[in-house]
Design goal:
By secondary structure, the chain is an alpha/beta fold. About 35% of the residues lie in helices and about 35% in strands. It has a 9-stranded mixed beta sheet, with helices on both faces. The radius of gyration is 19 Å and the shape is elongated. It binds adenosine-5'-triphosphate and magnesium ion.
Amino acid sequence: MSSITLALSKGRIFEETLPLLAAAGIVPTDNPESSRKLIIGTNRPEVRLVIVRATDTPTYVQYGAADLGIAGKDVLIEHGGAGLYQPLDLEIARCRMCVAVRKGFDYGAATRPGGRIRVATKYINAAKAHFANKAMHVDLIKLYGSMELAPLVGLADAIVDLVSSGATLRANDLEEVEEIMSISSRLVVNQASLKTKRELIQPILDVFSQAVKG
Ligand code: ATP
Ligand code: MG
């Protein structure tokens, strides 16, 4: 009998996926927050979960190491989406991608034609596309986390980061000056798995899409 593997990251994606899994009659046998296991079984012998870093989810699915995964739009844009079918916006882990600067920094002046700014971000592709659309020259600096620090120590003039409540920006004297896009997480499916394991994957797709509508 064939089986399927779903790639999830710990934290908000895992937590917000649990109700969707429950709707599909799938209950994990361990909690990745407390267990150190990276492969987690479920009540359904043909369904297992693998726990990966959020940025790695599309890669596991692209190569078929996982049949399905759940990843943020931010992560999917940086990955590029090769080999992935993206059938469903699950509308979980919602936030927005935005440009933020130090309070008082004159972003309007800095971004006038001919201006040039330094932007630190984990989201190089999304940032590149955003500033290219505005016909702006930017020097992008790749960071892997804590982007908020960069403008405070002179590494960059601005950051492109994800924001939900804005509390982290406020705590660091930063302000949002531009929204780039709203972000939520999508179901991604390996294109080959969709064909070879459709009898297992399609019912999950159907239940998830019902749950999103409901
Ligand atoms: P880590 O926090 O381990 O460095 P990460 O930031 O990639 O990794 P998570 O924090 O679990 O992983 O975020 C997973 C996804 O949730 C992100 O890709 C994004 O789509 C979404 N997300 C990130 N930050 C927020 C937020 N503050 N509120 C809501 N959703 C968010
Ligand atoms: Mg995070």
